[in-house]
Design goal:
The structure holds 2 protein chains of 2 kinds.
Chain A lengths: L1 H8 L2 H13 L3 H29 L3 H9 L4 H34 L1 H4 L2 H9 L3 H18 L1 H28 L5 H8 L9 H14 L6 H6 L8 H30 L4 H5 L2 H15 L4 H33 L4 H21 L1 H29 L1 H9 L11 H28 L1 H4 L8 H17 L1 H4 L9
Helix pairs in contact in A: 1-9, 1-13, 1-16, 2-11, 2-13, 3-11, 3-13, 3-20, 4-5, 5-8, 5-16, 5-17, 5-18, 5-22, 7-15, 8-16, 8-17, 9-13, 9-16, 10-13, 15-16, 16-17, 17-18, 18-20, 18-22
Chain B lengths: L2 H36 L5
The chains are: A mainly alpha, B mainly alpha.
Amino acid sequence: MLLAMLGMAVGTGNIWRFPRIAATNGGGAFLIPWAVFLITWSVPLLLCEFALGKGTRLGPIGAFAKLGGGGWAWMGAWVTLCSTLIMFYYTVVTGWCMRYLVAAVSGDIPGADPEAFWQAYTGSGWPVLTLVLGLGLGLFIVSRGIKGIESATRILMPVLIGLLLVLVVRAVTLPGATRGLAFLFTPDLSALGNSRIWLEALTQNAWDTGAGWGLALTYATYMRLREDTTINAFIIGFGNNSISLLAGIMVLCTIFSIRPDAASEIVGAGNNGLTFIWVPQLFAAIPAGRMFMALFFLALLLAALTSLISMIELATRALVDRGTERRRALAIVGTAALVMGVPSALRMGFFDNQDNVWGVGLMLSGLFFGIGVLKYGVDRFRVRYVNSEGSDFTIGRWWNVAMVLVVVEAVVLLVWWLSQTLSSEGLRASLDPFASWSLGTFVLQWGIVLALLLIFNRRLAPGVAEEAA
Amino acid sequence: MTGAAWITFAVICGFVWGGFATLVVLALGKERRKRKQSGAPDR
C-alpha cells in the first residue's frame, strides 16, 4: 500500500516540472523554501488525508460529510471533481509518454526534428489513440481492485526509481555535469527576500506531492487498522521530494553538460517544450543516447501511470460510496474520461486551459481540507482521527499550528495568483472566459462547478451520518 | 562547485534523502516489531 501511495504522489510533475521550476527560481535559493513547505504544507495535509480516509473509510465526499455533516459534502465533491477533471487530461499526458517511448525505441526521434515531430503528433488524431491506450491500461489495473493496484505499483515503483537512478548516474558522469549541480545548488540567499520564489516553492509542493488532491485519502480507506498514518504521511512527502531532487539533478546535469549555452532557453520552454522537444535533442548528443532516451520516457510513463490509476480509483470510489457497483462505476469513469479527454487530446489550447483551471483549483482543495479540520476542531480531529488506533507515533500540537498555516498558505497563494493574473493580462483581457489563462475562464468553470455542487449538496452523500453536529 | 553550493547540496539532500531513508528504516522496524508481537511470520 505504501508503494501505491508513493506512486500516487510521484508523477510527471516530479520529472518535468521540478527541474524547470527550480532552475528558473534561483536554484539553491528555491530549494530552501521548497524544503520548508514540505513540512508546512505537504506533510500536514497528507497526514490529514490519511487520518480522514482511515478514520471514515469513505472517499472525499463521504469523508467531508461524516466530518461536518451533510452540509460539508460539497467541499469533498470539489476535491473529487477537481482531481477527476485533472485525470481527464492526464490520460492525454500518459498517451504522450507512450508515444514518445515507442518513438525513442523505434528511432523516430531523435532522427526526426523533435519540434516537427511534436507538432505533427499533437496536430494529428494520434493523441486520441494513445489516450485510449493509456486510459485502457489505467482502467485495467484499477479493475483488478486495490490488490491489483498494489501488485502493479509493487513492480512499477521500484522500476521507476531504478530507472531514475540509472539516468542520474549517467547524467552526473557526463563531462561538465558539475555545472548543472552548481546551478541547482548554488544559493543566492538574497533571493529569499523575493516572494515569488516562496510562492513557486509552495505551488511546486502543492502540485507534485498530491497533498490535498483526495488521492491519499482514497488509498487510506483501504489501510489496515494497525497501519500507522503518521509515518506513512511523512514517507510519502519525503519520498516524493527525494524523487524530485533526483529528477532535478538528472535533467540539469544533462542540460548543462550538453547545451550550457541554451540552458535558459531549455528550462524556459515549459513542461512540454522541455520534455518532448529538448530532451530528445539532448539525449541525441550523448553515447547510447537512444537507449537512455527510451529509459527516460519509460520512467515518465511509469510516473504518469502510477498517478493516473490513483485518480481513476478516486473517481470510481466516489461512485462506489454512493452505492454503484464497482464494475459499473469503473465503466462510467472510463467513458467519462474518454469523452472529456478527447478535446484535450485534439486541441492544445483546450489542454492548457484545463491544466490551468483545475491545477489552480487544487489550491482550493487544499484550502477546503484546512477549513474542514479547523471547523471540526483541530485538537478534536488530531485526537480522534490522527492519533487513532494503530498509530505508532503520537502527533503533538505542532500539527494544530501546521493546519492553520496550511489555510494561510492557501489563501496567500490564491490572492497572489489572482494579482498575477490581473497584472499580467489587464482587467479587460483577464475577463475573457474562453482564454487559456484568464480570470474569466476560472470564474466561469469554477462558478459552474461550485454552483452545481451547492445546489445538489444534500444529495451528494446520502446516508452518511451527520456526526459533527 | 563552490563551498556554499556543496553545503546546500549536503543540507538539502541530507534533509530530504536522509529523512526519507530514516523514515523507511523506522517504519520497517515498527512493522517487524508489530509482526513479532502478533506472532505473524516476517515477510
